[in-house]
Amino acid sequence: MVRQIDECPGDAHNETRRGSVVERGYLEVDGRASPQQHSTGTDTAVTTGTSSDVDVASTSLREDDAHCEQARHRNTASPTPPGSCLRRAKALAKKYNLVLCFLVAITVGLVYPLPGVVMGAKQGGVRPFVIVCIALIFLLMGAKLKQRDAREAAREWHGLLYGFTAILVFTVILGVLILRGVTDAGGFPDVNDFSTGMKIFFAVPTTINVGIVVSEQAGGNGATSLVLTTGTNLIGVFTVPLMLSWISDLDANGLDAGRLILRLVYSMLLPCVVGQGARQSVPAVRRFVDAHPFGLKITSSVALACLPWMSISRANEEGKLRQLTAASVFAVVGYFLLIHALLVGGNMLCSRLLRLSPPCTRSVVIMASQKSFPVAATIISFLPESVGDEGLMLIACILCQQTQLFTDSVFVGWWGLPPNKPATPAPPPPVPVVVLPPEARPTGGTKSSLV
User: Among 10-24, 118-132, 178-192, 424-438, whose mean pLDDT is lowest?
Assistant: First the structure.
């Protein structure tokens, strides 16, 4: 019988099999070792004799292959190295830093509200620390915007055009009009300030950081997402107050669109322009921003999380959270899910009709279906008290924002990544067994008869 001897690394039984003579690349012929002929084909085990000999050889080969596979697995499998759990925790914290910041902010606001109340106090009709946080967010947004991202996104200009129109017009009209109908029909069981907060939430542009992260996880175009975020939030400085005054009933409660636009200009538009100007004119700023993307991302996430922290702390201190009931929470979450599902479905349909590329479709659908909590919180902080209770309106916005974050994470997991992942390698073919006729049986067992 002639068969190839494969060496199993690190296998004690391997030494017994090959003894002191048989090494890798040798053949065993009736118990004697012989060098293997080198070839470019598939490794083959050669067996001569009767069919029973072939069966025994095949069974032996399978047993040896299984034994070698177990030995390799034992050698390659190593215990978890020290610090691997810590590295995994750091990786998760890096990936979900915004979610963790929001959870910490809400928890601190519920447990110990005093610092948030002090930081979010009004002075001269405005909340200075809220304006500082918003200005910092838009300053970093402007500093991170690269001109090549805008040029890359402009290649699918029809996708950008639809995204801008959907974010600033279509989704605003649909969301606000549905909420107006729900409010007129008495759909909010306890307080209508929740409805007012939701109207403002659906009137604002798309998210600032969350949408970009979610769209990239879905396989979207990061440049398109960044341009949609920056552009719609800057244009929204002028369109959101006008849309609220036009299609909502807030103007009857004292909404001054012109004054609101002026405040949004110096708290959102001006910092973004300053950030972009510094990037283009000061090389040191550009190098610093490009060299520290994660640090700036954490800074932006902390500034974003400070807004719900101050809102929850103030609502907790004033006792507004006690006005929450299960019916009101379910109403806010249920109406948001209904409108959000309509936005996602409508944007997917329009993207298909426009025949956008898959990455552009993912970016447009996600960005045009999300709304920005920081902008909504900024607008609410600038509104007069006659519009509604600020704490209750912010609670409704926070419920919408958290529901949006959770549902879109699930949606991205269902939607899946684009099919550009490498294919799983096929398993190696089994080693064939060849039966030689009796006249081809090796004679004498010499090495030269095998080569």
Answer: 10-24
